[in-house]
Design goal:
By secondary structure, the chain is of the alpha+beta class. 26% of the residues lie in helices and 25% in strands. It has two helices and four strands. Strands 1-2-3-4 form a four-stranded antiparallel β-sheet. The protein is elongated.
């Protein structure tokens, strides 16, 4: 979860916000399509081969606008968090 750790270090979010984001990321590992995430169709590669994946984006509820971008691999059901970003007005780095 390097992207999460980098975000915490870079933007220094409130503990309560960081905890909500972490809990959302952990739950996404079990249900990658969970609401309110959306698929980024232009970046996704769908099919039945090992390289098929969805890029997904979510504004995590209860965080004031923190966004998480992640890739869900179909065959392994693995989730890779690629970026976590605070709203522009709260970014410190």
């Amino acid at each position: 979860m390097a992207a999460y750790s980098e975000w915490v270090e870079r933007d220094d979010p409130r503990f309560s916000v960081a905890r909500v984001v972490l809990e959302w990321i952990e739950a996404a590992g079990e249900t990658p399509w969970r609401w309110p995430s959306v698929t980024l169709d232009d970046l996704s590669e769908r099919g039945m081969d090992a390289g098929s994946y969805d890029w997904r984006q979510v504004v995590v509820p209860g965080t004031g606008g923190v966004e998480v971008y992640y890739r869900h691999w179909y065959q392994s059901d693995r989730v890779d968090v690629v970026a976590v970003m605070s709203p522009l007005d709260e970014r410190r780095g």
